[in-house]
Predict the 3D structure of the following.
Amino acid sequence: MGDPIEIGILEYAGSAKSVIFGLVDMFAIANNECRALKDTSRRLFNVKVLELSSAASLAGIDAYRKHNLSVLIIPPTLTTLPDDDQVRDLSKLILDVHHTGTIVVSVCGGAYLLAASGIASGREMTTHWAHRDVLQRKYPDITVNTEQLLIDGGDIITAGGLMAWTDIGLLLVDRYLGTDVMISTSRFMILNTAARSQVVYSGFHPALTHGDAAVLKVQLWIHRHGGQGVNLPDMADQAGLNLRTFIRRFSSATGFNPGEYCQRFRISASRNFLMVPGCTIEHAAWQCGYGDVNAYRKVFKRYLGVTPSEYKSQFLMANTTDTLPT
């Protein structure tokens, strides 16, 4: 087995223990399913519950910044939000780890802490429908879309309902341990995998922990702009590099040249629109910067292996299928 995938789950005052320990158990089950394959090339999860009491000091917070986390998960609270001091400390922690390439994930009302960190500014996120109006008023620079259960923005992932931790957990199992492990984990836990295996998890999952700070800065900038309206000179300026050096380092760190990276990000983002009932393919294309819908269809097919129409049909079919594994 290779180096473990480090997953951190915040446990703060009032956070939902069912979400925290449900995820801990799911990742343990996934590890067992992965071991059963006897494939030494597979990596396993190493899960840390980062316990931050209401009396947590800045020194205690700083200790958690030293973890080399691939993912930081923010569970919801079942009571009121943490006090102002803890929100400030937690949001600083979230901001800092995100700047190192850690993917930040929120479940349900955990979106408040993610929003408070500032990393979702100018972007779209989801939360529980009951939090939508308050969150939108408090953070008007964020688009709060509660029509979707899960929004995968690459470096930021948000999930809506309280039980959406199962969707988040399976997304991460699929991304890091493989679709076969995700399906076997779902079967063990008797969770419906139809929509997950066919629709929700197919997409673009860029490398963010490559260690090149200049490239990471550009990636996060691309994500904030939805991959639209960006060009090579602007990217190189963001990185503080000359054009040739930037292209070489970006390609080396991410595995894609900058143009392909932006295309893949835009196509992946368009899936969120296709999953909204009533959204047309033309509208999804326009929302992601494609004025030519035929060009959009060709690029979509090239990267995802199906047409936008086929993708939308698979999603609708999966969501009308509610059978348990046998």
Summary: The radius of gyration is 19 Å.
